[in-house]
């Protein structure tokens, strides 16, 4: 329980680094007109932050699941989706809709029974649950409005980075609440068997 709490705080610190690295990469690429060098390195550092944060978040979700005697089929499905998102992220970091959608759906599904049962701080659970949805809405609106310049592949990096920023900051806020709560919980020991 306490380990899951500490890991949640680590993930909370790493998630926003993804958006910051990708924003810096985009700004440097636009100012220099070159992808090679610093923009590419910053993007890859963001991808490393993505893999780290997503993996740790999945571990925290498993810890939360185990700590509370299971979160049902919905919770297990959420953990599997989050795991698929974490596994997909390093190979397809540019395909935000895939890994982001998987992680967002997974987090939402795990958070649903947590909120329903009232087993975690409600505000943190709600922010954590809907951060991915808020990021998705932000991305769709920004893309539809064609916010920022279009890149060589017909994408709108500002829209993508905005979506990632909203989702990752929301996940970080939720994980801080989970982390502080889990870290402060007293571990529950299984009752000892009594010889008959």
Produce a short descriptive summary:
With 196 residues, the chain is mainly alpha-helical.
Task: Set down the secondary structure blueprint.
Blueprint lengths: L1 H31 L5 H30 L4 H17 L7 H22 L4 H23 L12 H28 L12
Helix pairs in contact: 1-2, 1-6, 2-3, 3-4, 4-5, 5-6
How would you sum up this structure, described in words?
There is one protein chain. By secondary structure, this protein is mainly α. It is built from six helices and no strands. The two termini are 32 Å apart.
Keywords:
196 residues; mainly alpha; elongated; single chain
Termini gap: 32 Å
Rg on CA atoms, Å: 18 Å
**Helix count from the secondary structure assignment:** 6
Order of helices and strands: HHHHHH
Overall residue-averaged pLDDT value: 87
Please tell me what the overall shape is: elongated
The SS-based structural class is mainly alpha
Summarize the biggest pleated sheet. Answer: none
Low-confidence runs of at least 5 consecutive residues: 190-196
Number of strands: 0
Percent range for β-strand residues? under 5%
Helicity, as a percent range: over 70%
